[in-house]
Design brief:
By secondary structure, this protein is α/β, with parallel strands linked by helices. About 40% of the residues lie in helices and about 20% in strands. The strands form four sheets. The protein has a seven-stranded mixed β-sheet, with helices on both faces. Bound molecules: NADP nicotinamide-adenine-dinucleotide phosphate.
Length: about 300
C-alpha cells in the first residue's frame, strides 16, 4: 500500500467526551490516564482480570457505547516469551485487536492502538517510513504485524501508532533496570549493535493525543527524537544519575536471548513532527523520567 493509502489527515477533532483506556496498568496505559485526568477529560481505565485480551466476552463487556475514544494500551509485550507461545501472543496482539476494532466500529468510537518497530526486519540503514515493507524477525513482531493487518481490514476509525524502546519512571523497562543495576554494580556490559529510538511513555501519550486532536487517521510513527544504541542509553542513565559505574559496549552475542532483535529499528517520525510539532529528544525525556525516578 502507498503512503497516502496508509495515512490521512482530516478535520481536527474536538476533545473526546469519554475515553476508555485498555491496559491502564502498563507504562503507556498509566501515562494516558495521567494525561486525561490532568486534561480533565472523563476517562475509565481497565485491566486484568476485568479486561482480558484473551477473553472476547470481556472486550464486549468493557467497551460500552458511552465511550467515543478507546485507547488500546494492552498487549502481550513479553518479546522473549512470545517465542515459546506464539499462538498466545497472536491471540492478544492480533485477534483481540480485531475484536476491539469490531466493537469500536459498532459503538462508533475512534480506536488508538499501538504497534512496534519490531514489525520491521532491522536490516535498513535509514529510518523506516510507514510504508516500508513489513518483515518481522521474531514471534512478537509477527503477532503485532498480524494485528496491524486485522485492524486495516476493520471498518473502525483508527490511529495505529508504531513506537519503540518505551520507558517510564514505573513498570518494567530498560531504563529502570539499568538504574537499579548501576546503583550497586561497578561495571555493566551493554549491547552496542542495536540502534533505535527510545520513547518516553508519558510523552508518547501526549503526542498520541495530539495526533488524535489534529485529525490523524491510519498508521503513524511516534518516538522520541534522535537515535542511539542500548549502550548509549545506558551510559546516559549512569551519567545523569551520577553513578560510579562503568558502562562497557559489547555485542548482542554476549546476551543470547530466545527472540532475535532487529539491528536497526529506527522509525521515521517526520510525518508526526510535521503534524504535531517537535517530539523532543530522547535525552531530554530520559532526564525527566530519571528526575521522577530519583524523586
Ligand atoms: N514497551 C516497549 O518497549 C514497546 C515497544 C514498542 C511497542 N510497544 C507497544 O506499546 C503498547 C503499550 O505497551 P507498554 O510499553 O505500556 O507495555 P507494558 O508496560 O508491558 O504494559 C502492557 C499492558 O498490557 C496488559 N496486558 C498484558 N496482557 C494482557 C491481557 N491478556 N489482557 C489484558 N491486558 C493485558 C498489562 O496488564 P497487566 O498489568 O495485567 O500485566 C499492561 O497493562 C503495546 O501495544 C506494546 O506492544 C511497546
Amino acid at each position: 500500500m502507498t503512503h497516502s493509502q496508509l495515512q490521512s489527515i482530516t478535520e481536527p477533532r474536538p476533545n473526546p467526551k469519554r475515553v476508555l483506556v485498555l491496559g491502564c496498568t502498563g507504562m503507556v496505559g498509566r501515562s494516558w490516564i495521567e494525561l486525561l485526568q490532568q486534561s480533565k477529560i472523563d476517562c475509565t481505565g481497565v485491566s486484568r482480570p476485568q479486561f482480558d485480551l484473551m477473553n472476547p466476552d470481556s472486550i464486549t463487556r468493557c467497551i460500552t457505547d458511552q465511550f467515543d475514544l478507546v485507547v488500546n494500551a494492552a498487549a502481550w509485550t513479553d518479546v522473549d516469551g512470545a517465542e515459546s507461545d506464539e499462538a498466545g501472543a497472536t491471540r492478544a496482539n492480533a485477534f483481540a485487536v480485531e475484536e476491539i476494532a469490531k466493537r469500536c466500529a459498532t459503538i462508533n468510537a475512534t480506536l488508538i492502538t499501538y504497534s512496534t518497530d519490531y514489525v520491521f526486519a532491522g536490516d535498513a540503514s535509514s529510518p523506516y517510513s510507514i510504508d516500508a515493507p513489513i518483515n518481522p524477525i521474531n514471534a512478537y513482531g509477527r503477532s503485532k504485524a498480524t494485528g496491524e493487518s486485522k485492524l486495516a481490514q476493520s471498518s473502525a476509525s483508527h490511529i495505529l501508532i508504531r513506537t519503540s524502546w518505551v520507558y517510564a519512571p514505573w513498570g518494567v523497562n530498560f531504563v529502570r533496570t539499568i538504574h537499579n543495576l548501576a546503583k550497586t554494580k561497578d561495571n555493566l556490559r551493554v549491547v552496542n549493535d542495536q540502534q533505535g529510538r527510545p520513547t518516553s511513555a508519558q510523552h508518547l501519550a501526549h503526542s498520541s493525543f495530539a495526533l488524535f486532536t489534529a485529525g490523524a487517521h491510519g498508521i503513524w510513527h511516534l518516538t522520541d527524537e534522535d537515535e542511539c544504541t542500548w549502550f548509549d542509553l545506558a551510559s546516559e542513565v549512569v551519567r545523569y544519575a551520577r553513578f560510579q559505574c562503568t558502562v562497557t559496549p559489547c555485542g548482542s552475542d554476549e546476551y543470547p536471548r530466545p527472540a532475535a532483535r532487529p539491528a536497526y529499528s529506527t522509525l521515521d517520525i517526520s510525518d508526526s513532527i510535521k503534524l504535531v510539532g517537535p517530539l523532543g529528544t530522547w535525552q531530554t525525556h530520559l532526564h525527566e523520567a530519571l528526575d521522577a525516578l530519583i524523586g
